[in-house]
Design a protein that fits this description.
Blueprint (H helix, E strand, L loop, with lengths): L2 E2 L2 E2 L1 E6 L3 H12 L4 E7 L3 H10 L3 E2 L2 H6 L5 E4 L6 H10 L3 E5 L6 H14 L3 E4 L6 H11 L6 E11 L15 H16 L6 E9 L14 E8 L4 E10 L4 E8 L3 E4 L9 E3 L2 E3 L6 H4 L1 H16 L8 H20 L3 E2 L2
Parallel strand pairs: 3-4, 3-6, 4-5, 6-7, 7-8, 9-12
Antiparallel strand pairs: 1-2, 9-13, 10-11, 10-17, 11-12, 13-14, 15-16
Helix pairs in contact: 4-5, 5-10, 7-10
């Protein structure tokens, strides 16, 4: 077997040549030791062809990719509605599976995906990138070593970059996106930063405040969700689709012995002072803020494919976060707290 930096090379295929898939392909091809990007499938064949040409891979159909005996693992970066079926198909083909969040849109779907990967005996990892960022990992280490004592108050924030003209893609945002595709990150990180605890109650307040003209079409662009844990901690998860100042992702754990913060808004420590005040450049995208985390999660997946370790983010982790997302949706619909667990 060919090696790279002393590691046996695993050959990875990709399903989905959109923005996030293009980024993952580039990371595998250029930054993940012991991994090779070999094939890509996408319903838009021209997108697959373009990406394949860029990295000397090949474009193909999904069935062809899954039937290739030389492909060891599959990265799934398609639209969310297709994730669970693709996980099942990849597992049944004997491929290790890495899937972007959310791994599925319903609990029945994620249960089916988890069962398929277990039955096939293949690794299954889900792409919750914040867990792999150095500052979030340090926050978790601080919690683990008792640095904050007993968690009492927690907070997670996701404010996507906005534009002065407003939410220009509002018509393309699918209903419930803010819960199942955005806040699912926050729910996962709050669970991860409160290890051993489970959420028992969810209460949502949400609206279309950025683009109210699309509210009748099912758009929700602003939300705050209050989570109550079984160890007594109270957490808030908030999201908005229009932060004009940049990409704002942070987390906080406050406890009986102190507090730890993760996430950063400035993209550089340099500060410019002039007659109007002080100015600092800010993060503008997930690719900028989580560049190293995106590489590390795929490096860890490659290690799992080789059998060197277990996937650090499992299908069960994805299920726990999805269960909270679905409860948050129900709370919004029924305008009341929802008990789970």
């Amino acid at each position: 077997m060919r090696t790279d930096h002393g590691l046996p090379v695993v050959r990875l295929g990709l399903v989905g040549a959109g923005r996030i898939g293009v980024m993952h392909a580039g990371n595998v091809a250029r930054h993940v030791a012991g991994a090779e990007f070999v094939a890509v499938a996408d319903p838009r064949r021209e997108a697959a062809d373009e990406l394949a040409d860029k990295y000397a891979a090949r474009a193909c159909e999904v069935d062809e990719l899954l039937a290739d005996p030389e492909i060891d693992g599959v990265l799934i970066a398609s639209i969310a509605a297709a994730h669970s079926d693709l996980i099942v198909q990849a597992a049944q083909a004997g491929k290790a599976v890495w899937c972007e969040k959310p791994a599925s849109l319903t609990l029945d779907e994620i249960d089916r995906a988890i069962t398929a990967t277990k039955d096939a005996g293949v690794p299954f990892q889900v792409g919750f990138n914040r867990r792999f960022a150095a500052d979030f990992q340090q926050a978790r280490a601080t919690v683990d070593t008792g640095g904050v004592g007993t968690p009492q108050l927690m907070r997670s924030i996701t404010r996507d970059p906005g534009w002065p003209a407003g939410l220009t893609n509002a018509a393309d945002v699918r209903p419930w996106t803010i819960f199942r595709e955005t806040l699912v990150h926050d729910f996962d990180i709050l669970l991860w930063l409160n290890p051993g605890a489970e959420v028992v109650e969810v209460y949502t307040r949400a609206d279309a405040l950025v683009a109210p003209e699309f509210k009748a079409d099912g758009l929700i662009d602003t939300a705050v969700v209050v989570l109550t844990f079984d160890n007594g901690a109270i957490a808030t998860a908030e999201a908005n689709f229009s932060a004009l100042y940049g990409y704002d992702v942070r987390a906080e754990v406050f406890g009986s012995k102190g507090m730890v913060l993760a996430g950063r808004l400035p993209s550089t420590p340099a500060v410019h002072y002039d007659a109007s005040g002080l100015h600092q450049q800010t993060m503008r995208s997930d690719e900028q803020m989580f560049r190293d985390a995106y590489v590390q999660e795929l490096a860890d997946f490659a290690a799992a494919v080789r059998g060197d370790s277990e996937p650090p983010v499992t299908g069960q982790d994805a299920r726990r976060a999805l269960e909270i997302s679905l409860a948050a949706m129900r709370s919004h619909q029924e305008q009341r707290p929802i008990r789970i667990g």
